[in-house]
Design brief:
Elements (H helix, E strand, L loop, with lengths): L1 H6 L1 H9 L14 H4 L1 H19 L5 E2 L12 H12 L3 E2 L20 H14 L16 H16 L7 H4 L4 H4 L5 H52 L12 E7 L6 H9 L6 E8 L5 H9 L5 E6 L4 H10 L5 E4 L14
Parallel strand pairs: 1-2, 3-4, 3-6, 4-5
Helix pairs in contact: 4-10, 6-7
Amino acid sequence: MGINVEDNLSLFQKIYKDGFEIGNHTFTHPNIAEVGRNRAITEIEATRLLIESQTGHSTVLFRPPFNADAEPSSYTELEPIAIGKNHSYYAVGESIDPEDWDTKNPDFTMNADTIYNRVIRQYEANPEKGIILLHDAGGPRQATVDALPRIISYFKKKGIQFISVAQLLHLTKDQVMPPVKGGLLQADSFASKTIAFLSKFLTITFWLAIVLGIIRILFLGVLALLDHRKERKQPPLVTGSFTPQLSIIVPAYNEELNCVATIKSLLQQDYPHFEIIFVDDGSKDNTFERINEAFKNNSKVRAFKKQNGGKASALNYGIERANGDFLLCIDADTQLKKMPSAR
């Protein structure tokens, strides 16, 4: 599988250097008959390019995932073989399958004895069977590793010779794994190594971001807890003993319909020390005139008019003229209900 090659490049290269033939088993092990032709071809071609980039040799050997035995009879078995044939692959099926991958069957425990007995039983039922399928992925494979020496010993005692797929096809290794051009090899090797590096980098970055996020949440939680404890230790504020001067800044632009009602609602509040700074931001209607006429005799209200510069400009204008210890900024179309002071 291409994804396993990508995750184990050094091991893959060692397997090749030790003389083993390597075939194509797709990149992510989908059911070729169910994923669509374009996805199937992409799976096969991606793995081929990866094999070429790491070995300098291609491969014409292809074992479709799932149901592709030595005697295919159904569509799901024939379709992958047809796709492989159209791309010049020899489809390599199995004739003895002990299903050593099935480690989650609740009816039995997959162990070396089970694998060995299944292989021998299937062979003895039909000695013409010649390809044994064993797995090295999909979960723990210790049972397979333990059963393999016993399987080899059994067949050697019967004088049966082990051969490669190339020998079975009466071909040489270079025919089933033909060399590729050096330039292509160099480019593909660099690309595959770059992709492998980026894949691992993104995986590490993803988990690092999660860990840092959790640490940040815990850190903020600790700070919040400490702040809460600090507040509980502070003496309660005596209501009425702290009444600093408050400056309420009201920026306005073309608000002649609402501005007077807004200021009246603010004046109804019974907080003792506050001033209202009304800033007309260059209105084109009668906003300033209405405010000036309605509150010219009210000492709590001061009205100013400036050239239009936007809400932020009007707020800054009002802040510069504020006398309060605290500032409250409110829109000219917002009216407050009368809120009694806390007692």
